[in-house]
Specification:
Order of helices and strands: EEHEEHHEEHEEH
Number of helices: 5
Structural class: alpha+beta
Strand content: 25-35%
Number of strands: 8
Shape: globular
Helix content: 25-40%
């Protein structure tokens, strides 16, 4: 799998189906993805291999005796579902996940290297605006990275 990058806008229909960006699809293998709630009010999409790697590491670090671990596992692992590409290259977003991310008609896919984020377009715009000061501050901490 190549690195997943790019920003792509698409429209969610009334049945929860959304065309998957062809550029991202060309970088994937297989006919399905794992989709789950993300830390922010968006969704994360993983290939089966990346999901296995991510969820295994998360479960190894989590303890059923830790309240914080249980919270993270219930938020990220429990709601995960497999979605398959249809013949038109669309995926259907489960209702519970659409509600979590407040997905309306206009959505945006973001390629984030090894996974994909799916946002409601208005929510993503608000997120960027609200976090601009924090972004500027965070980039200052990356001054050791050479280009």
């Amino acid at each position: 799998m190549e690195l997943l990058t790019g920003e792509y806008r698409n429209t969610l229909d009334d049945k929860g189906r959304i065309p998957f960006p062809a550029k991202l699809r060309s970088e994937l293998t297989g006919e399905s993805l794992i989709i789950t709630q993300a830390v922010d009010k968006c969704l994360w999409l993983f290939t089966a291999d990346e999901w296995k790697n991510f969820s295994s590491k998360l479960m190894e670090a989590a303890s059923p005796f830790s309240g914080k671990s249980r919270l993270v596992v219930r938020h990220l692992i429990a709601p995960a579902q497999t979605v398959e590409f249809d013949k038109s290259g669309r995926i259907t977003i489960p209702q519970s996940l659409r509600e979590y991310a407040s997905l309306s008609k206009e959505c945006i896919f973001l390629g984030i290297n090894k996974y994909i984020e799916l946002w409601d377009s208005a929510s993503y715009k608000d997120y960027l605006e609200e976090n601009e000061p924090s972004f500027r501050e965070a980039t200052e901490g990356l001054s050791d990275i050479c280009l």
